[in-house]
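Supplementary Methods, section 5.1.

A reviewer requested that the exact input to the structure prediction be made available. We therefore reproduce it here, unchanged from the version used in the analyses.
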Amino acid sequence: MKSQDKPQGPSGESANPRHPPEAGPSPARRAALQELAARLEVAFSDLSLLDQALRHSSFANENPESGPSNEQLEFLGDAVLSLAVSHLLLATFPDSPEGALSKRRAALVNARQLAALARELNLGAYLLLGKGEERQEGRKKPNLLADALEAVLAAVFLDQGLAAAQRLTQRWFQPLLAREADWAFQDPKTALQELAQARGQPPPSYRLLEESGPSHQRFFRVELRLGDRILAEGSGPSKKAAEQAAARRGLGVLQQEGG
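The structure derived from this sequence is encoded token-by-token as follows.
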């Protein structure tokens, strides 16, 4: 499939998980959807896809004539998001091992982070909720917001193709890769290696400076360098612990320098 092409089903029709098309959004609803589409910077050919992405099951159950809920789009969006973020991470950190990439993806693709992105888009204001969810302030619920964001990405994928979904994902997640807080989920050595790489600096290296103490109470001290620069020292009861301590201090130095 060419990246600009819409996904096709086996019979050639659009691979849309919706039921047969309904009457479509009202003029007021269409205006609201167009407003959101402009915020997403996506020119939808079929706004009803975006409408479905924002239709919670509670609303669909109370208003069956409105069309299906966003659950199937959420399912598809989860897969599209995982693919797009994985591609973004490989492009950003081409030398990272699989384990580090998986940890970083988990730090980016989770309900808390997706809900935060949804709030930035004011996605809750566009949700279609049943009366019960409205009373329970469903527009503010992190899980509903996260699910809706995934469904919106699926709507973009179905309407505009994979390349458009990847561009939107990059716009959402690229800024997060540069934020200091996003390094905290990793062990310090891995975080320091990726931060140095992201800033175009030499990879960190560690040199043992001291090893002393009895066998039951060993002491290690190491030096951390970035190229020829001595960045920090660390100590601990094992060489690994000393390197982690040095990396933790080195992270602090780089974060202070780079903001």
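The two ends are 41 Å apart (CA to CA). These observations are discussed further in the main text.
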